Amino acid sequence: DTTIVEEEMRGDLVGYYYRVNGPTLGLYVLANEVERLREPADAEELLIKARSM
């Protein structure tokens, strides 16, 4: 069941920015390299930034 894997990974992935390199397959990227760019994003800070655009 893929939802079990999703639930386990969600906390490690959501809220971060990533640089992903690899070939595109339609709407998807086959990730050959993945780099986490910074610490978890502050949701309030992101909302303020998005609203100012």
Concise summary:
With 53 residues, this protein is of the alpha+beta class. The chain is 40% helix and 23% strand.
Topology:
Layout: H1 2-13, E1 18-21, E2 24-25, E3 28-29, E4 33-36, H2 43-51
Antiparallel strand pairs: 1-4, 2-3
In words, what does this structure look like?
There is one protein chain. By secondary structure, the chain is of the alpha+beta class. It has helices at 2-13, 43-51; strands spanning 18-21, 24-25, 28-29, 33-36. The strands form two sheets. The protein has a two-stranded antiparallel sheet with strand order 1-4. The chain has a two-stranded antiparallel ribbon with strand order 2-3. The mean pLDDT is 86.
End-to-end CA span: 40 Å
On the 0-100 scale, what is the average pLDDT?
Answer: 86
Number of helices: 2
Query: What is the subunit arrangement here?
Result: single chain
The count of DSSP E runs of length 2 or more, i.e. the number of strands, is 4
What is the SS-derived class? alpha+beta
The outline comes out as: extended
As a percent range, the share of strand residues is 15-25%
Radius of gyration: 14 Å
How many domains in all? 1
Overview features:
53 residues, alpha+beta, two-stranded antiparallel sheet, 2 helices
